[in-house]
Amino acid sequence: MIFDGDHHEIDQYLHAVVDEIQRSMQLTMIANDKANSAIQIAMAKLEDEFQNILIAHTSPIETNSLVDPSLYMIDERNRRRERGAVVMEIGVSLYMIDTHREAMNGL
């Protein structure tokens, strides 16, 4: 067995094993960094290509086709009603203030 020999030889052998493990780990880290860089480059190229495909197959859209004119009319009617309600509230408030003043003046 290996441990039956000279301690100096065993020490050299173990140092050689440790050195080999460290070299392997460094090579693995370098390979991993290169793989990550390659993946990042590939992703950027795919993104550019996807944008080019989208641009090439895009057609202009008329804004009239996006909105139903009847919805616009309904929205405009609602706005008018809301404005009318606000005016009515203001009118009622002013009437109440005037009525209160008259009552106070009558005292």
TrEMBL record:
Pfam families: Exo70_N (PF20669). SUPFAM superfamilies: Cullin repeat-like (SSF74788). It comes from the Eukaryota. InterPro entries: Cullin_repeat-like_dom_sf (IPR016159). Gene3D superfamilies: Exocyst complex component Exo70. This is Putative exocyst complex component EXO70A1-like.
